[in-house]
Amino acid sequence: MYGGGNLFETPKLDELRNEDPIKLKEFEDRIERGEKIEPNDWMPALYRKQLIRMIEQHAHSEIIGALPEGTWITRAPGFKRKMSLMAKVQDEVGHAQLLYSAAETLGKSREQMIDDLISGKSKYSNIFNYPTFTWADCCFISWLVDAGAIVNQTANARGSYGPYCRALDRICAEESFHLKYGHHCVIHLATGTPKQRKMMQEAIDRWWEPLMHFFGPPDKLSVHTETLVKWKVKMATNDENRQQFLDMYVPKIWELGLTIPDPNLKKNAETGLWEYTEPDWAEFKRVINGDGPCNKERLAVRRVAEERGEWVRQAMLAPQSKYVVPLA
Amino acid sequence: MESLDPRIARLEISDDAILQPKEALDQLVTYEVFVQKKDKAAFEHVGIVHASDVEMAFIFAKETFSRRFTCFGMCVVETGKIRITGYTDNDNNIYDQVAKVEHGDGPEEIYEIFHLKKRGKQHVHIGSVEAESYDNALYKAKVLYDDEKPKFNVWVIKNSDILFSDEDDKAIWDTLSDKKYRDATAYRAMDKIKKFKEEQLNQ
Fold this sequence. Notes:
The complex is a heterodimer. Chain A has helices at about 15, 20-30, 45-70, 80-105, 110-120, 135-155, 160-175, 175-190, 195-215, 225-230, 240-255, 280-290, 295-315, and strands spanning about 265, 275. Chain A is mainly α. Chain A has a single domain (about 15-315), classed as Ferritin, core subunit, four-helix bundle (Ferritin). A two-stranded antiparallel sheet of chain A has the order 1-2. The radius of gyration of chain A is 20 Å and the shape is globular. The mean pLDDT of chain A is about 90. By secondary structure, chain B is an alpha+beta fold. Among the domains of chain B are: about 25-80, Roll (Ubiquitin-like (UB roll)), CATH 3.10.20; about 80-160, Ubiquitin-like (UB roll) (Roll). Chain B has helices at about 5-10, 55-65, 135-145, 190-200, and strands spanning about 30-35, 45-50, 75-80, 85, 110-115, 125-130, 155-160, 165. In chain B, the strands form 2 sheets. Chain B has a 4-stranded antiparallel beta sheet, with helices on one face. A 4-stranded antiparallel beta sheet of chain B has the order 4-7-5-6, covered by helices on one side. Chain B is extended. Classes of the chains: A mainly alpha, B alpha+beta. Chain A: One of its GO terms (molecular function) is phenylacetyl-CoA 1,2-epoxidase activity. Chain A: Its EC number is 1.14.13.149. Chain A: This is 1,2-phenylacetyl-CoA epoxidase subunit A. Chain A: Keywords: Oxidoreductase.
């Protein structure tokens, strides 16, 4: 579970002006009633476009997100941790498959999505452009990045598009052990030797800012998302998700005697909201546009996997059958 | 920065190679997957896989959809071989739009019928009919399986197009008991936190 902080394009008003007003009303009424939209239903072009973009970004995040953790499988401390981490990484890659399938029902082929990932046209969660220097970095991802993704995705599972909701339900159920595993790893380090504690603390210091970025730009900087909220594409704002995460996990970090590298972080007793230093959004922009420490190598690993698998796909091609869009 | 990823180091991957545009789409065929969640339960749609042929599709489907949930049987069918009706909503029954087709132009064979009984949920196998064409099968399904509740969509599939798991091979669905690390209960750690907090207080 690695999806978070989706970036939406600014919807253009004329895109909606071209839609059939009667069909648009039926579509919006259906969502209003709480009914799901299915692939064969009429939908506005903007809805289709934004959903493809969102589900595709989520799928890419699962695949790329498996890389920084995957690098630690061979070096995980002990057989038990190796087994757990291997199972987790395998799950995440499987979840990418489920998500690609859901996006495909909207009419974009899987191959096109993979091509767009490799060429850098499509985005994925920015946080995976940072390196995992130590085992503690890997533990941080398993616990806290997963936790952040769960906050985002449980919100999305209440959305309006049937195939995406079904995929998310399945993913959430399959993942029940991931978060517990991550927490277990962090507890082990935090309650361990001074050296282990130091390693865990350093990981938190490194990853806190990317994790704050993970939920996406603050609402006051985000593009106009009213339509996306009405259509139940976006179920909670970036700030809402960030607040919920802080509320659930800051106490859990503090109880382990670990500190968070933000002197302004505190819960305002009156508003019930967390106050924090805004992370550096210029850095976020710079990294998401390709200039992060690991952007190039993440895509390089995918590109090589694609290239080296080509002969297998070619060998498997059955020319008597043609690709069609899945039904549901 | 030197890479920390063993793949980069070992495979001598360069991260600044120029991307060669691919020539043609090599997308494989789409198959729809159905599982039985309980013994003798109806098959339910769970998702899709891409594969070169139906047997490979079955193997991929087993990997993707039977790993974590209970599974007692599975079947796969090429997406293009499924005949689908239109979708309805509210209380409109799709069977109300099905015309009377008493015969078809093919030999009589078995067709499997799947219903969508709630929008947002999965298609579920409802039964089979012997018919001479898809339209004939759909009409026979209307006669046999249309009760008072609305059906929002119907899938009609020739039985001969579906690859079913073998009843005698049920053991392939068993989960090995030594995979406890895949359960959340294997990661209890409250004792450790409690002990840690007590130690902090005593210092």
